[in-house]
């Protein structure tokens, strides 16, 4: 199925049973690069995005599709919803397919970042460096990184010996990590302010979002100090354990 056929078919399905709230805007680019594939019939429409270490699932179902069998390529699905409007049908469908809810993240928003927006002291990091750094601190389903074919770039801070001690991915949803031995020294704040500087200089709207676990006290404190406040959007992460691509 080509991209235009997918777009037309999608119009036949409501969003009542779906998790495509987070569908990326540059779908055609993902299709062209081969990191997205689609399958569908008169009951369901599935969109698979290849990531590093997992396949991310988006779907739309008809009301009569609750008995569909799980697809062999389903590895992970991130279901986004607004509080007090939980799409219980979609969540129950995922659980019925064998998915397990692994975590909940709350979105925090800032319309401005406090402090100096500067790129001083940071430099560009390669895709390999970024994946290695973030992979040491997160599971694959926790980091919203694209396939390497669509890697947008990252910023990093290095030690005096040149070793990476912190990195932040520059995509629409950034991922930030600092080595345990380097934490508490302001490197996370420095990296995020540098990330904000790149977005402002690119002419993007100075509105920033981060997703944080309610139990991550250090990150909550850091982003609060940068001017972020919790809003009403939360994300539940569902993973199909033991799945294979």
Write up what this structure looks like:
Helix content is 23%, strand content 29%. The mean pLDDT is 84. The strands form three sheets. A four-stranded antiparallel beta sheet has the order 4-11-5-10. It has a four-stranded antiparallel beta sheet with strand order 6-7-8-9. The two termini are 20 Å apart. It is of the alpha+beta class and 245 residues long.
Which helices and strands appear, and what pairs or packs with what?
Blueprint lengths: L2 H8 L16 H7 L2 E5 L3 E7 L4 E7 L14 E7 L5 H9 L3 E11 L12 E3 L1 H9 L18 E5 L5 E6 L6 E3 L8 H15 L6 E5 L4 H9 L3 E11 L6
Antiparallel strand pairs: 1-2, 2-3, 4-11, 5-10, 5-11, 6-7, 7-8, 8-9
Question: Main traits of this protein?
Answer:
245 residues; alpha+beta; 2 domains; four-stranded antiparallel β-sheet; 11 strands; 23% helix; globular
Could you write a compact summary of the structure shown?
It contains 6 helices and 11 strands. With 245 residues, the chain is an alpha+beta fold.
SS-derived structural category? alpha+beta
Beta-strand content estimate: 25-35%
Which strands sit side by side, in order, in the main sheet? 4-11-5-10
Rg value? 19 Å
- State the total count of DSSP E strands: 11
